[in-house]
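Predict structure. Chain length: 229.
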Amino acid sequence: MSDKISRRQFVTLTAGTAAAIAAPINVLAKNSTSTKTITKRLIKENMNVLVLHGSPKENGNTAGLVDIATEELKKKGHTVTRMNAVDMEVEPCIACMECQKSGKEFYCINGDDGTKALKAMIEADAIIITSPLYFAAFTAHIKPLIDRSFAMCRKFGTKQHFSFVDGKPVLFLSTGAGPYKNNGEILEGSCNDYVRFLKLDKVDFFYASSKPAVSEEKKQELRQLVAAL
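Prediction complete.
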């Protein structure tokens, strides 16, 4: 991934001055989906940050990253709400298309925890989505919620394309036993499509190898990344 700015470089660029927050984090590969760069929206004070946590392990490696991000966000005065997908009742999307008939009003035919989570995304100032790698993909716990996000977009692929979370900052956190290449980069591709579909503002896709454990260096890197927002 020679055409991608490393997170270590990002931290170096942003640690010294808040002005560097406006610089691009990722230069994506040619066949990747382009995403927005960090904007001044992330400098907003007293943000309500929603964490959608996709790991089934309460104290796993990915949960450890969430704890670090939460700690740093609270230091900056932000409010963090965490929703654990493993504790939620989320029906799978059945492609009924009823949501697309509601015009500019948000609607999902399911009145379950999935709809509550989507509404929470709309109400939040920023979003963190987390998932350990399961066969280079989202876990089965959060994947239904990713699919149900279809209800948050209208007229995709047309000039009338709009989203109920347009421009909202999103940070992805993931861990896996393997390296980023051919592992995390596959999930990041899915995340980029998600960003493009919902017109989100991608902050970063932060990936840490958890074999044998997430290193202290990676933990510090995440602390500096979140502290720079």
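Summary: Helices lie at 7-15, 61-75, 113-123, 143-148, 180-198, 216-227.
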